[in-house]
Specification:
With 297 residues, the protein is an alpha+beta fold. It has helices at 2-31, 34-60, 75-104, 112-138, 142-171, 175-203, 210-223, 256-273; strands at residues 229-238, 241-250, 277-285, 294-295.
Length: 297
Protein backbone atom coordinates (compact mmCIF):
# COMPACT_ATOMS: atom_id res chain seq x y z
CA UNK A 1 0.00 0.00 0.00
CA UNK A 2 2.78 2.42 0.95
CA UNK A 3 4.60 1.64 -2.30
CA UNK A 4 1.48 2.38 -4.34
CA UNK A 5 1.13 5.72 -2.53
CA UNK A 6 4.77 6.58 -3.21
CA UNK A 7 4.40 5.79 -6.92
CA UNK A 8 1.28 7.96 -7.19
CA UNK A 9 3.07 10.79 -5.41
CA UNK A 10 6.04 10.47 -7.75
CA UNK A 11 3.73 10.69 -10.78
CA UNK A 12 2.00 13.76 -9.33
CA UNK A 13 5.41 15.36 -8.65
CA UNK A 14 6.30 15.06 -12.31
CA UNK A 15 2.97 16.59 -13.40
CA UNK A 16 3.20 19.44 -10.87
CA UNK A 17 6.83 20.06 -11.80
CA UNK A 18 5.92 20.45 -15.47
CA UNK A 19 3.12 22.90 -14.61
CA UNK A 20 5.42 24.97 -12.39
CA UNK A 21 8.13 24.88 -15.06
CA UNK A 22 5.70 26.33 -17.59
CA UNK A 23 4.63 29.07 -15.17
CA UNK A 24 8.20 30.10 -14.35
CA UNK A 25 9.39 30.18 -17.93
CA UNK A 26 6.29 32.24 -18.72
CA UNK A 27 7.32 34.68 -15.98
CA UNK A 28 10.84 34.88 -17.41
CA UNK A 29 9.55 35.36 -20.97
CA UNK A 30 7.31 38.25 -19.86
CA UNK A 31 9.95 40.02 -17.74
CA UNK A 32 13.32 39.05 -19.24
CA UNK A 33 14.71 38.82 -15.69
CA UNK A 34 17.91 36.79 -15.27
CA UNK A 35 16.88 36.03 -11.68
CA UNK A 36 13.56 34.59 -12.83
CA UNK A 37 15.42 32.65 -15.52
CA UNK A 38 17.61 31.10 -12.82
CA UNK A 39 14.48 30.23 -10.86
CA UNK A 40 13.07 28.48 -13.93
CA UNK A 41 16.32 26.56 -14.47
CA UNK A 42 16.06 25.15 -10.96
CA UNK A 43 12.60 23.85 -11.77
CA UNK A 44 14.05 21.73 -14.59
CA UNK A 45 16.01 19.95 -11.87
CA UNK A 46 12.77 19.51 -9.90
CA UNK A 47 11.21 17.66 -12.83
CA UNK A 48 14.32 15.54 -13.35
CA UNK A 49 14.47 14.69 -9.64
CA UNK A 50 10.81 13.64 -9.71
CA UNK A 51 11.59 11.23 -12.54
CA UNK A 52 14.53 9.89 -10.51
CA UNK A 53 12.32 9.47 -7.43
CA UNK A 54 9.72 7.57 -9.47
CA UNK A 55 12.31 5.12 -10.81
CA UNK A 56 13.94 4.72 -7.37
CA UNK A 57 10.65 4.07 -5.55
CA UNK A 58 9.66 1.48 -8.15
CA UNK A 59 13.02 -0.29 -7.99
CA UNK A 60 13.25 -0.15 -4.19
CA UNK A 61 9.78 -1.76 -3.92
CA UNK A 62 10.99 -4.94 -5.62
CA UNK A 63 11.20 -7.87 -3.17
CA UNK A 64 14.50 -9.41 -2.16
CA UNK A 65 15.92 -11.96 -4.58
CA UNK A 66 18.92 -14.25 -4.84
CA UNK A 67 21.17 -11.43 -6.08
CA UNK A 68 19.86 -8.90 -3.53
CA UNK A 69 18.91 -10.93 -0.43
CA UNK A 70 18.63 -7.78 1.70
CA UNK A 71 16.23 -6.07 -0.73
CA UNK A 72 16.56 -3.04 -3.02
CA UNK A 73 15.91 -0.23 -0.53
CA UNK A 74 19.23 1.52 -1.19
CA UNK A 75 18.09 2.39 -4.72
CA UNK A 76 16.41 5.45 -3.19
CA UNK A 77 19.75 6.73 -1.91
CA UNK A 78 21.23 6.51 -5.41
CA UNK A 79 18.29 8.60 -6.66
CA UNK A 80 18.86 11.17 -3.91
CA UNK A 81 22.56 11.40 -4.82
CA UNK A 82 21.61 11.86 -8.48
CA UNK A 83 19.21 14.67 -7.52
CA UNK A 84 21.99 16.33 -5.53
CA UNK A 85 24.36 16.20 -8.51
CA UNK A 86 21.68 17.67 -10.79
CA UNK A 87 21.10 20.47 -8.30
CA UNK A 88 24.81 21.32 -8.40
CA UNK A 89 24.71 21.38 -12.22
CA UNK A 90 21.68 23.69 -12.08
CA UNK A 91 23.61 26.02 -9.77
CA UNK A 92 26.45 26.23 -12.28
CA UNK A 93 23.96 27.10 -15.04
CA UNK A 94 22.52 29.83 -12.82
CA UNK A 95 25.99 31.31 -12.21
CA UNK A 96 26.55 31.39 -15.98
CA UNK A 97 23.26 33.23 -16.54
CA UNK A 98 24.10 35.69 -13.75
CA UNK A 99 27.49 36.43 -15.31
CA UNK A 100 25.88 37.11 -18.69
CA UNK A 101 23.45 39.47 -16.96
CA UNK A 102 26.28 41.33 -15.26
CA UNK A 103 28.16 41.74 -18.54
CA UNK A 104 25.19 42.94 -20.60
CA UNK A 105 23.33 44.74 -17.80
CA UNK A 106 19.86 44.31 -19.34
CA UNK A 107 16.98 45.61 -17.25
CA UNK A 108 13.94 43.36 -16.71
CA UNK A 109 10.53 44.56 -17.91
CA UNK A 110 7.74 45.27 -15.46
CA UNK A 111 5.01 42.68 -16.00
CA UNK A 112 2.32 42.15 -13.34
CA UNK A 113 1.29 38.97 -15.16
CA UNK A 114 4.86 37.65 -15.16
CA UNK A 115 5.28 38.32 -11.43
CA UNK A 116 1.86 36.81 -10.77
CA UNK A 117 2.82 33.63 -12.61
CA UNK A 118 5.91 33.27 -10.45
CA UNK A 119 3.89 33.83 -7.27
CA UNK A 120 1.44 31.11 -8.35
CA UNK A 121 4.33 28.73 -9.10
CA UNK A 122 5.85 29.35 -5.66
CA UNK A 123 2.50 28.72 -3.96
CA UNK A 124 1.99 25.41 -5.78
CA UNK A 125 5.53 24.31 -4.96
CA UNK A 126 5.15 25.27 -1.29
CA UNK A 127 1.99 23.22 -0.80
CA UNK A 128 3.42 20.22 -2.63
CA UNK A 129 6.77 20.40 -0.77
CA UNK A 130 4.99 20.29 2.61
CA UNK A 131 2.94 17.28 1.50
CA UNK A 132 5.95 15.43 0.05
CA UNK A 133 8.07 15.90 3.17
CA UNK A 134 5.27 14.81 5.53
CA UNK A 135 4.36 11.68 3.57
CA UNK A 136 8.01 10.82 2.81
CA UNK A 137 8.84 10.78 6.52
CA UNK A 138 5.71 8.80 7.31
CA UNK A 139 6.54 6.00 4.85
CA UNK A 140 10.32 6.40 5.42
CA UNK A 141 11.19 7.20 1.82
CA UNK A 142 14.53 9.08 1.43
CA UNK A 143 13.73 9.84 -2.22
CA UNK A 144 10.41 11.56 -1.43
CA UNK A 145 11.86 13.47 1.53
CA UNK A 146 14.76 14.63 -0.65
CA UNK A 147 12.30 15.78 -3.32
CA UNK A 148 10.25 17.67 -0.72
CA UNK A 149 13.29 19.38 0.80
CA UNK A 150 14.51 20.44 -2.61
CA UNK A 151 11.11 21.90 -3.50
CA UNK A 152 11.03 23.83 -0.23
CA UNK A 153 14.42 25.33 -1.07
CA UNK A 154 12.97 26.27 -4.44
CA UNK A 155 10.08 28.06 -2.71
CA UNK A 156 12.43 30.09 -0.51
CA UNK A 157 14.62 31.09 -3.45
CA UNK A 158 11.53 31.95 -5.55
CA UNK A 159 10.23 34.31 -2.88
CA UNK A 160 13.64 35.95 -2.59
CA UNK A 161 13.83 36.35 -6.36
CA UNK A 162 10.36 37.90 -6.51
CA UNK A 163 11.20 40.45 -3.83
CA UNK A 164 14.44 41.27 -5.61
CA UNK A 165 12.84 41.67 -9.04
CA UNK A 166 10.30 44.08 -7.58
CA UNK A 167 13.17 46.06 -6.02
CA UNK A 168 14.97 46.14 -9.39
CA UNK A 169 11.84 47.49 -11.09
CA UNK A 170 11.29 50.08 -8.36
CA UNK A 171 14.89 51.31 -8.06
CA UNK A 172 16.23 50.70 -11.57
CA UNK A 173 19.34 49.00 -10.16
CA UNK A 174 19.77 46.34 -12.84
CA UNK A 175 22.78 44.80 -11.11
CA UNK A 176 20.44 43.51 -8.41
CA UNK A 177 18.90 41.12 -10.93
CA UNK A 178 22.21 39.29 -11.47
CA UNK A 179 23.17 39.49 -7.80
CA UNK A 180 19.89 37.79 -6.91
CA UNK A 181 20.58 35.09 -9.47
CA UNK A 182 23.96 34.46 -7.84
CA UNK A 183 22.31 34.22 -4.41
CA UNK A 184 19.80 31.72 -5.82
CA UNK A 185 22.69 29.72 -7.27
CA UNK A 186 24.45 29.62 -3.89
CA UNK A 187 21.25 28.48 -2.18
CA UNK A 188 20.75 25.75 -4.75
CA UNK A 189 24.39 24.68 -4.43
CA UNK A 190 24.06 24.37 -0.65
CA UNK A 191 20.88 22.32 -1.06
CA UNK A 192 22.61 19.95 -3.48
CA UNK A 193 25.56 19.47 -1.14
CA UNK A 194 23.23 18.67 1.76
CA UNK A 195 21.34 16.03 -0.23
CA UNK A 196 24.53 14.36 -1.47
CA UNK A 197 26.03 14.30 2.03
CA UNK A 198 22.88 12.81 3.60
CA UNK A 199 22.43 10.21 0.86
CA UNK A 200 26.07 9.12 0.89
CA UNK A 201 25.64 8.54 4.63
CA UNK A 202 22.84 6.08 3.83
CA UNK A 203 24.97 4.31 1.24
CA UNK A 204 27.77 4.01 3.82
CA UNK A 205 25.48 2.11 6.25
CA UNK A 206 25.18 4.77 8.93
CA UNK A 207 23.85 3.56 12.27
CA UNK A 208 20.37 4.33 13.54
CA UNK A 209 19.88 7.56 15.49
CA UNK A 210 20.66 7.74 19.21
CA UNK A 211 16.93 7.78 20.03
CA UNK A 212 16.29 4.59 18.05
CA UNK A 213 19.32 2.87 19.61
CA UNK A 214 18.09 3.76 23.08
CA UNK A 215 14.65 2.39 22.21
CA UNK A 216 16.20 -0.89 21.00
CA UNK A 217 18.32 -1.25 24.15
CA UNK A 218 15.29 -0.63 26.35
CA UNK A 219 13.21 -3.29 24.57
CA UNK A 220 16.02 -5.85 24.84
CA UNK A 221 16.41 -5.09 28.53
CA UNK A 222 12.69 -5.25 29.31
CA UNK A 223 11.71 -8.18 27.08
CA UNK A 224 14.79 -10.35 27.55
CA UNK A 225 13.68 -11.97 30.80
CA UNK A 226 15.41 -15.35 31.10
CA UNK A 227 18.56 -14.20 29.29
CA UNK A 228 21.68 -12.96 31.06
CA UNK A 229 22.87 -10.06 28.90
CA UNK A 230 23.08 -8.71 25.36
CA UNK A 231 26.14 -7.21 23.71
CA UNK A 232 27.66 -6.14 20.37
CA UNK A 233 24.52 -4.32 19.26
CA UNK A 234 24.87 -3.03 15.67
CA UNK A 235 22.45 -1.20 13.40
CA UNK A 236 22.41 0.16 9.87
CA UNK A 237 19.82 2.01 7.82
CA UNK A 238 18.85 1.10 4.26
CA UNK A 239 15.88 3.12 3.04
CA UNK A 240 12.81 2.05 5.03
CA UNK A 241 14.62 -0.89 6.64
CA UNK A 242 16.59 -0.78 9.90
CA UNK A 243 18.92 -3.77 10.20
CA UNK A 244 19.59 -4.76 13.81
CA UNK A 245 21.83 -7.51 15.11
CA UNK A 246 23.24 -8.38 18.54
CA UNK A 247 24.43 -11.27 20.69
CA UNK A 248 22.12 -12.60 23.41
CA UNK A 249 23.71 -14.57 26.26
CA UNK A 250 21.62 -17.30 27.95
CA UNK A 251 22.31 -20.07 30.42
CA UNK A 252 24.17 -23.02 28.91
CA UNK A 253 21.50 -25.35 30.24
CA UNK A 254 18.62 -23.49 28.59
CA UNK A 255 16.77 -25.38 25.86
CA UNK A 256 16.74 -24.15 22.27
CA UNK A 257 12.98 -23.71 22.50
CA UNK A 258 13.23 -21.46 25.57
CA UNK A 259 15.97 -19.35 24.01
CA UNK A 260 13.87 -19.05 20.85
CA UNK A 261 10.88 -17.82 22.86
CA UNK A 262 13.02 -15.05 24.37
CA UNK A 263 14.24 -14.03 20.91
CA UNK A 264 10.67 -13.97 19.55
CA UNK A 265 9.56 -11.76 22.44
CA UNK A 266 12.42 -9.31 21.90
CA UNK A 267 11.91 -9.23 18.13
CA UNK A 268 8.18 -8.51 18.49
CA UNK A 269 8.83 -5.61 20.89
CA UNK A 270 11.56 -4.07 18.75
CA UNK A 271 9.50 -4.43 15.53
CA UNK A 272 6.59 -2.61 17.16
CA UNK A 273 8.78 0.31 18.22
CA UNK A 274 10.98 0.43 15.12
CA UNK A 275 8.91 0.03 11.91
CA UNK A 276 10.78 -1.79 9.15
CA UNK A 277 13.17 -3.47 11.59
CA UNK A 278 14.97 -6.59 10.38
CA UNK A 279 16.49 -8.33 13.39
CA UNK A 280 19.18 -10.99 13.70
CA UNK A 281 19.97 -12.41 17.17
CA UNK A 282 22.99 -14.62 17.83
CA UNK A 283 22.39 -16.74 20.94
CA UNK A 284 25.47 -17.58 23.05
CA UNK A 285 26.07 -19.64 26.22
CA UNK A 286 26.93 -17.88 29.48
CA UNK A 287 30.71 -18.41 29.24
CA UNK A 288 30.60 -16.01 26.25
CA UNK A 289 29.30 -13.21 28.45
CA UNK A 290 31.29 -9.96 28.26
CA UNK A 291 29.65 -8.46 31.39
CA UNK A 292 29.05 -5.29 29.43
CA UNK A 293 26.50 -3.97 27.00
CA UNK A 294 22.81 -4.37 27.78
CA UNK A 295 21.72 -5.71 31.16
CA UNK A 296 18.56 -7.80 31.07
CA UNK A 297 16.06 -6.85 33.76
Amino acid sequence: MAVGLQLRIAFFSIAIGLVVLGLKFGAYWLTGSVALYSDALETIVNVASSFAALIAVWFASKPADSNHPYGHDKAEYFAAVLVGVMIVLAALSIFRAAWIGLVHGDSPDFSPLGIGLNVLAALINGLWAAYLTRVGRKVRSPALVADGKHLFTDVVSSLGVLIGVVLVLLTGWTILDSVLAILVGLTVLWSGWGLVKESVGGLMDEAASADVLEKIRLQISEQGEGALEAHDLRTRIAGKTTFIDFHLVVSGSMTVESAHEICDRIEAAISEGVPGARITIHVEPEHKAKHSGIVVL
